[in-house]
Design brief:
Elements (H helix, E strand, L loop, with lengths): L1 H21 L6 H5 L3 H5 L2 H26 L10 H5 L24
Helix pairs in contact: 1-4
Length: about 110
């Protein structure tokens, strides 16, 4: 389920980035690239309103998906190695050596 949320978040992020890149900070944006056609179809004011609403919509979608996806994170992991990190270490007794130590070399 987390993979599905991740894919949807990535797609929404890419769309949000494209919407932001289409906008022009001086008010031209998408309507300026169409020349006079944008004024005849929707008008400059309406084009910027649609892009602004799209920006807020996709930002809200990303935020909601990020918060919702946290509910689907498993509470415990199935890996025993991770669980050992929280347990007290078990000490094993040191076994005495059964072989005799090597004699030290004599110096002349």
């Amino acid at each position: 389920m987390l993979v599905v949320f991740g894919i949807i978040i990535i797609i929404a992020s890419v769309i949000l980035g494209l919407i932001i890149l289409i906008q022009n900070p001086k008010g031209g944006g998408l309507s300026a690239s169409f020349g006079g056609i944008g004024n005849q179809l929707m008008g400059v004011k309406q084009t910027t309103d649609v892009l602004e609403k799209g920006t807020w919509l996709f930002a809200a979608i990303i935020g909601i998906l990020c918060l919702t996806s946290a509910m689907f994170i498993p509470k415990t992991s199935g890996n025993a190695r991770d669980n050992q990190m929280y347990e007290a270490p078990v000490s094993t007794p040191v076994q005495p050596s059964t072989t005799a130590p090597l004699p030290s070399p004599r110096t002349k």
